[in-house]
Design a protein that fits this description.
2 helices; 34 strands; 597 residues; globular; alpha/beta; twelve-stranded mixed β-sheet
């Protein structure tokens, strides 16, 4: 009897030990599986993050040659958008990146197509979507409407409340990336991580300088968007954005409102005052470098044109025998999109090696005029300039046509040991900067305006006479943009409405100087920018509206010396509209969220 109880006890102990071992093994398996799932989740997240960075770099590459991200949403620009906002009659490539390796899949549960890229025993899926940038509210000031192919209008051309999901207006899109691990099949992968990222330009400042800013005396920076970025010091006793700032120039005694602005310097000095406002000047901050200001960049060219109304694109030069005007011929094969060229080319470059040089058509040659007419450009602004195939300017020498440009010889002062023909400028002659030639902008006959379009000027630019005031421009007029390969000297009352979709009003390939007091440079309330490759100087009793971007990339021209930006006395810059040129890199991750989709 006793042995029977002992045997039963042993059996119970063995059963208990068996259960304990089984439980321990099960617990170990559960822990192994749990650890495996954690590792898989981590790998899926890492793959999704890799997909985000590759997508950001892809979008940045698009923005290097495009003014917006239309091609991220519609890579071939071939979608029929006429049925918006109903489902778009789209293409299989819409909303997908053009990567060299991968294929297209539909993500289960979403019904949306993604581009799949196998990577390190897993994969990431990528898709781009518009960020609803048309909408009911006023469109972004720097908005573009440059690819209306297939009825793909946007912004003001859409009915209120509509948004075109295949056209971008603000260089911003929503990127959805799905990380899968292990394997590449979204239906069977054990781990899936979804990241939604808004990618676009970093916030812009009203003044951006690669170097120091000297706010001398009572100089004043103000306006709703009067923030200041300088990679070095912000020195001087200047004031920003406050009603207690000292008076501005006689024609503009003070800025319109007491606002709060932020100045940031990468150096140890930031001495601008707030003028009674809550504005701050913060030294020693991490300030992004200024955008590159390169007059030859294809981004400075007008948008493409395949319709009947194009943005006129001019090349102005003087080869000695007379001033010439060339215009871009959008109707030639390969010339439909000047921004697709590697850079802006000058007339005369070999069409065999530089095919975009073939797109220029000579429309005026002063050699055919007599006397002073050889150096003059006379042209009335009219809609005939917007046709794809430019027409000869039959009245170019007529004394009755308004004088808008006049060429003259100047003595250019360069900094010692500086060769202004290298670096920034194409080597083939005569594409190098004509540093001893200046074109004076003239506005005659009761306020004749500069003919509409984008002007590339081979030489320096001097504006010494008054242009029409903002109120004199016709409603809906598309404006004019001047890209000077050399210096820009401003000493007249000027009003600019930019013709360029990036909001560029004036660009100086060397220095820019406001050299005369009582001068008002007005961008007519537009989102407009003045861009400078070297340095900028502004004399007292002058006022400028608009964003100012100074790269401070060299010191070749002697027109301006010293700091990147120098404002004297009571010179005032007022930034009332959103600045069109972003600071830092063009495609940045602005916000980030994670989900299971």
């Amino acid at each position: 009897m006793r042995r029977g109880f002992t045997l039963l006890a042993l059996l119970l102990v063995l059963a208990a030990m068996t259960l304990l071992v089984a439980a321990t093994l099960q617990l170990g398996e559960d822990e192994r599986r749990s650890a495996s799932l954690v590792r898989h989740d981590a790998r899926a997240l890492a793959l999704a993050e890799a997909g985000v960075e590759r997508s950001r770099a892809y979008l940045a590459a698009l923005l290097a040659t495009n003014v917006d991200l239309d091609r991220a949403l519609d890579p071939l620009l071939d979608t029929d958008c006429a049925s918006l906002p109903s489902p778009v009659s789209g293409r299989d490539d819409d909303n997908l990146p053009v990567f060299t390796v991968g294929d297209t899949v539909v993500l289960p549960g979403s019904g949306k197509r993604f581009f799949r890229v196998p990577h390190e025993d897993g994969a990431y899926l990528v898709r781009f979507d518009d960020n609803d940038d048309d909408g009911d509210s006023p469109a972004p000031e720097a908005a573009t409407s440059n690819n209306p192919i297939g009825g793909c209008s946007e912004g003001d051309d859409l009915a209120p409340g509509k948004n075109n999901p295949l056209r971008d207006r603000d260089q911003t899109v929503i990127v959805t990336v799905v990380g899968l691990y292990p394997g590449t099949d979204p239906a069977t992968a054990q781990a899936r991580k979804v990241l939604r990222v808004r990618v676009g330009p970093q916030p812009a400042a009203g003044i951006i300088a690669g170097g120091s800013i000297d706010l001398d005396g009572a100089s004043h920076v103000c306006g709703l968007h009067g923030d200041i970025f300088a990679t070095e010091d912000i020195t001087g006793t200047g004031c920003m954005c406050g009603t207690k700032c000292k008076g501005g120039p006689p024609k503009k005694q003070a800025c319109d409102a007491n606002t709060t602005c932020l100045a940031q310097s990468g150096g140890d000095v930031c001495s601008a005052t707030g003028g009674g406002s809550a504005s701050q000047c913060v030294p020693g901050t991490s300030v992004p470098p200024p955008p590159v200001v390169n007059v030859w960049s294809s981004l400075n060219a007008p948008p493409g044109c395949v319709g009947l109304t194009c943005t006129p694109f001019y090349y102005l030069r003087d080869l000695g025998t007379g001033a010439q005007v060339h215009m871009w011929n959008y109707s030639k094969s390969g010339c439909e999109r000047p921004q697709a060229c590697p850079r802006i080319f000058h007339p005369g470059e070999s069409s065999a090696t530089e095919p975009c040089s073939k797109c220029w058509e000579k429309v005026h040659d002063g050699a055919s005029c007599s006397g002073s007419g050889k150096k003059e450009i006379r042209k009335l602004d009219d809609v005939s300039l917007t046709v794809p195939l430019p027409l000869p300017w039959l009245t170019g020498c007529s004394n009755t046509a308004p004088l808008v440009w006049k060429a003259s010889s100047v003595s250019f002062t360069s900094v010692k040991d500086c060769d202004p023909s290298t670096g920034l400028y194409p080597v083939p002659s005569p594409g190098q900067w004509s540093k001893d030639t200046s074109f004076s902008g003239s506005f005659q006959y009761g306020g004749a305006r500069l003919p509409r379009g984008v002007w590339m000027v081979e030489g320096n630019v001097d504006f010494g006479t008054n242009s029409p005031a903002c109120a004199a421009y016709p409603v809906g007029w598309k404006g004019a943009t001047v890209l000077a390969q050399g210096d820009v000297d401003l000493h007249g009352e000027l009003s600019f409405i930019p013709a360029h979709p990036r909001g560029i009003a004036l660009l100086a390939g060397r220095d820019m100087k406001v050299s005369q007091g009582n001068t008002y440079i007005d961008t007519c309330g537009q989102s407009a920018a003045l861009l400078v490759h070297e340095q900028f100087y502004m004399v007292a009793n002058s006022h400028l509206t608009g964003q100012l971007v100074v790269e401070n990339a060299g010191q070749c021209s002697g027109l301006v010396t010293g700091s990147a930006i120098t404002m004297k006395g009571n010179a005032t810059i007022e930034v009332v509209a959103p600045p069109p040129i972003p600071s830092g890199r063009s495609a940045s991750v602005l916000d980030w969220s994670e989900s299971a989709y």
